Every structure is written in C-alpha cells, then in structure tokens.
Amino acid sequence: MFNRTNDRAILRSMTATPTPAKGLATRELILEHAYERARVGGLEGLSIGTLATDVGMSKSGVFAHFGSREDLQLAVLDAAARRFMAHVLVPALSAPRGLPRLRAIVAQWCEWGRMHTSGCVLLTAAGEYDGREGPLHDAVVAQQAGWRGELEKGIAQAVAAGHLRADTDAPQLAFEIYALMLGLHHDAGLFGFEQAIGRVHAAFERLWRSWQP
C-alpha cells in the first residue's frame, strides 16, 4: 500500500548530504590551511579568526571542528608528524635493513629539508614549547622521542647486520644524526640549501665511517 510518510523518509535518505564525510572534508581543509600558516608563523601564530576567513567560515564553524585553539594546534602538530613520517620513514623502509636504510632515511630527511626551507612545523614547535608546560609541550616531546626511537631502531638493525660496530651507542648516534639535520635546516635558511647540503653530506660520510667496524 502507498505510504506517503515512508516515501518522504526514503527520499530524504537518498538526497541527504553525507554529513560525516562532509565534516571530515571540512576539517581536513581547515587543517591544510592551518598547516601552511604554521609553517610560516609557527603554531603560536595560528588564529581561529584568520583561519575562518581563509576557508570562508565563521569562527563558530571552525570551533565546531576544533573545540579550542589548543585543540587546533595539537591537530596541526599531529598532521605535521604524519606528513613527516610519510615522506621520510615510509619510503626508506623499502631499502635493505642496516646502513642502507639509515642512509635512505637521511636522504629522505634531506629532501624534506629542501621542501621546508621556509619553515618546518615540527622544528618550530620544538623551539616554541621546549620551555613550557602543558599538552603542546608534552605532544612535542612525545613526537620527538618517537622519531628518535625510530632512528635508534634503524641503528640497532645496522649493528645486527654488521654494518656498524657492536659497541655502537645507538642513542648517541641518533643524537648526532639529528644534530646534523638541525644544522641543515639552520644553514639552508640562512645560506641556501645547496651550500648546506654539501656540508651535511660530507659530515654524514665521516659520521658513518666513525661508527663502522
């Protein structure tokens, strides 16, 4: 039997906008704009009002996706970390375990530096929150510690493969790798990437030799 009420309900279900998907797409759009702004002005430079203007929304619309400015900053930090891992670690995993994989990680990291001479959200955040307390400081520490752990894991695999000495101090070598990459980001912004990358490559060759059998 014809049922007008049921037919209207079916029609609404067929024509209704998939709200969760649309909401996710809007959230990602806001994050994309926030990420690009954070590359230049850091996480502390993010403004709900400016982002609302960027994406053509009201402030309340942005707040609907991020309950506070701090929530937005944490989301941008997480997005930056995921981008970094996808660009640096994931491609390097296709290289054989050991020193080849460590070299691949460094090569991808250098390319990340080339792409981010105008600003890296992760490095800027480390400087913004190293002397503070709170969720953002804790998130930065967790992210940095996690990445240092990935380096130490790669170093341990290189030791197991016989590419590095059995007495290699993994935390120390991870620190030295990180220090050279900080030098790349620093000099690339001041003196140009090509000059900086040449010095970094030379430094890494000496570093690898110093820990090899």
| Rounded radius of gyration (Å) | 23 Å
Sequence of secondary-structure elements: HHHHHHHHHH
At the fourth level of CATH, the homologous superfamily is Tetracycline Repressor, domain 2
Instruction: Report the count of strand segments.
Output: 0
Write down the overall geometry: elongated
The average pLDDT is 89
How helical, in percent, are the residues?
Answer: over 70%
Description:
The chain is mostly helical and 213 residues long. The chain has a single domain, classed as Tetracycline Repressor, domain 2 (Orthogonal Bundle), CATH 1.10.357.10. It contains 10 helices and no strands. Helix 5 (69-92) packs parallel to helix 8 and helix 7 (121-129) crosses helix 8 (135-160). The longest helix is centred in the C-terminal third of the chain and has 26 residues, at 135-160. The termini are far apart.
Short recap of the structure:
The protein contains ten helices and no strands.
